[in-house]
Amino acid sequence: MIERIATPRLVLRPVAAGDLPDLLEVNGDPEVTRFLPYATWRSPDDAAAWLERMDTLAAAGDARQLVLVRAADARVVGTLLLFRHDAGSARAEVGYVLGRRHWGQGLMREALQAACLHAFGALGLRRLEAEVHPGNAASWRLLERLGFVHEGTLRQRWVAQGAPYDTRLYGRLAGDRGGPADGHEDARCR
Ligand SMILES: CC(C)(COP(=O)(O)OP(=O)(O)OC[C@H]1O[C@@H](n2cnc3c(N)ncnc32)[C@H](O)[C@@H]1OP(=O)(O)O)[C@@H](O)C(=O)NCCC(=O)NCCS
Question: Is the domain covering 5-182 a CATH 3.40.630.30 domain?
Fold first, then answer.
């Protein structure tokens, strides 16, 4: 269970219904949802349907949807999902989304690093993984900066709008040298 993680510029906490107006701005942008497995939100109904899906995942006990709240003004600027939690293997997957106006400031790196530390520390996980569209360079560069390893490419794993596409599989072990699990933070976080 994650209740609150603070970073220098953000607070990560579980999503709540009051976050949906800010999240509609984030996910209502086709540039943001370009590589995501859901359609661009068009209305508050899309936002409510998404929250219902997240609540269902959380109730099943294998996912936790967090939001990124900017410490300076309490605006919700993004999301970070820990999901497909396999307790037996102490493993989970991460997914993350940031509003376009906040890209390029290292904010998701700050959030993901804190989430990794929490996952490998308090949650006792031993492996985190992420699947990334090969065209989503901002995402896979972010993972590589945090010590995730490109373990292979899964061929035609997904179909979106009728077209199959590959994904790059990234993994990071709690015991990997460098990166957030060591609490070692040089400029490259490795
Ligand atoms: C992926 C995402 C979360 C990155 O967040 P961010 O806070 O902007 O990330 P950072 O500022 O830490 O930048 C990450 C790295 O990607 C690089 N980068 C950013 N945009 C890029 C682009 N369009 N092409 C190539 N590299 C890019 C940055 O320079 C940085 O690399 P560096 O550390 O080597 O300089 C953000 O772009 C996003 O929300 N995208 C839409 C949702 C999404 O695709 N989520 C991931 C699904 S797998």
Answer: yes
